[in-house]
Task: inverse folding
């Protein structure tokens, strides 16, 4: 399978064109993806848009000292390994580089085998980090451990990196399973609050009657059963980041109190008249359209405007199909190591079937499917017969397009019929998948005389 994890993504930063292109040529011959930059500004632009595992960084740059750029990379991209390049070898300089996060350093002029050894060492360190991390620790590393290299995900990564340094509220939207909490953690871990608490709250999991006490805390005796004073989640998150997962599940009463917290940056415990100052960043997520929730009277419009200072949409997996092989490889590696299994890969036919499936549960559904296959199935290679029936049956559906030669109208009719079967005749949902409005779908159903059950 094509090697596409970040340990094969390298950025060379050097203002000397000969050295920059020479290093790039050597590494590309080793099947590595190499990006190049002549100065720090260009380097930071590439890092903001492209996941990079290793940076080869000249210590002398025209617009910024390389050591300063090293500090920025170490702070904002902690999973990236940096190898410094210097023409002025000195013990103190080497110590400074290592102290500020460099993996190692090369002294000009250097031999190609020296370059290759250090790059391989950095790749090994990246792989060791990845293998050793628990899922919780992986989530804490930021963007570099969110799997995805599609254009859609690159736009998400760029927005996360731009949003992270500020204290502005962020609203993350997207279907269930698209990785909204992962994105929230990345924002926190790339922010100045990274050393403070990240407190996630699943708004759909808390009982409404207890939610206010959970968020704000309460004083002893404030209600029946309040036998002692309790610190709320807001207090625990003070100076850190608070994440409201699926915020549309909050009642209008709690929404009003949350709005006051955002506006006034203070709150009171249940049963107390004492105001507590609050210094937190708020991130929220929703798998529902907030605009539709506002129209339905289920969500406050003023709270929506407070939350949506920076909106970031997480695309569904069907809109980033190119990431599916990368995700499959990632989850196979993860569960192979966890379960001590000997699965070494996936057949091309099985991968095609994975890519053809629409994944309504998105990345979460894909991960659970891989976990189930690794645990239950035998063999070293994942084959089509190992896949769950809902994937193999879906593959057979698409044979209606490959069993003959058809006009475009006939193909359109067959595809509309397929989507209507899949959505059990729900026209609004079918129109959304087809990318047309319901009225247009109605015209096409009439045109092709399609029977809708």
Result:
């Amino acid at each position: 399978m094509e090697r596409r994890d970040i340990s094969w993504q390298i950025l060379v930063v050097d203002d000397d064109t000969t050295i920059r292109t020479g290093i790039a040529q050597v590494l590309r011959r080793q099947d590595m993806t190499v990006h190049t930059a002549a100065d720090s500004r260009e380097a930071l632009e590439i890092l903001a848009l492209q996941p990079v595992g290793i940076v080869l960084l000249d210590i002398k740059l025209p617009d910024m000292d390389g050591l300063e750029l090293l500090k920025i990379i170490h702070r904002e991209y902690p999973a990236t390994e940096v190898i410094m390049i210097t023409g002025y070898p000195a013990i103190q300089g080497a110590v400074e580089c290592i102290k500020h996060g460099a993996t190692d350093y090369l002294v000009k002029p250097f031999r190609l085998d020296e370059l290759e050894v250090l790059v391989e060492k950095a790749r090994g360190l990246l792989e060791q980090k990845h293998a050793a991390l628990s899922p919780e620790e992986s989530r804490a590393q930021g963007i570099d451990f969110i799997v995805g290299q599609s254009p859609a995900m690159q736009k998400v990564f760029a927005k996360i990196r731009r949003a992270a340094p500020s204290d502005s509220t962020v609203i993350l939207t997207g279907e269930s399973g698209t990785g909204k909490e992962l994105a929230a953690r990345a924002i926190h871990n790339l922010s100045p609050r990274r050393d403070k608490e990240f407190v996630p709250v699943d708004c759909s999991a808390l009982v409404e009657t207890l939610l206010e006490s959970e968020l704000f805390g309460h004083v002893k005796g404030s209600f029946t059963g309040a036998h002692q004073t309790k610190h709320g989640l807001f207090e625990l998150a003070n100076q850190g980041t608070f994440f409201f997962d699926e915020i549309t599940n909050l009642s209008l009463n709690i929404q009003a109190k949350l709005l006051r917290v955002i506006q006034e940056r203070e709150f009171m415990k249940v049963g107390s008249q004492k105001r507590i100052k609050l210094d937190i960043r708020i991130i929220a997520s929703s798998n529902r359209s907030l605009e539709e929730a506002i129209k339905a009277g289920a969500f406050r419009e003023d709270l929506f405007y407070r939350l949506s200072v920076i909106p970031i949409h997480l695309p569904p997996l069907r809109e980033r199909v190119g990431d599916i092989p990368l995700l499959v490889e990632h989850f196979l590696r993860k569960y192979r190591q966890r379960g001590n299994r000997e699965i070494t890969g996936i057949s091309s036919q099985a991968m095609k079937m994975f890519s053809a499936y629409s994944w309504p549960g998105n990345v979460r559904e894909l991960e659970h499917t891989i976990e189930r296959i690794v645990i239950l199935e035998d063999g070293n290679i994942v084959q089509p017969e190992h896949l769950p029936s809902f994937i193999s049956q879906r593959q057979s559906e698409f044979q209606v397009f490959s069993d003959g030669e058809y006009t475009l109208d006939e193909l359109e009719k067959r595809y509309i019929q397929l989507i209507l079967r899949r959505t059990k005749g729900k026209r609004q949902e079918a129109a959304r998948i087809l990318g047309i409005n319901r009225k247009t779908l109605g015209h096409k159903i009439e045109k092709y005389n399609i029977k809708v059950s």
User: Anything to note?
Assistant: The two ends are 43 Å apart (CA to CA). The first strand starts at residue 9 and ends at 13. Residues 30 and 106 are 19 Å apart (CA to CA). The chain has four domains: 6-132, 143-313, 318-399, 404-447.
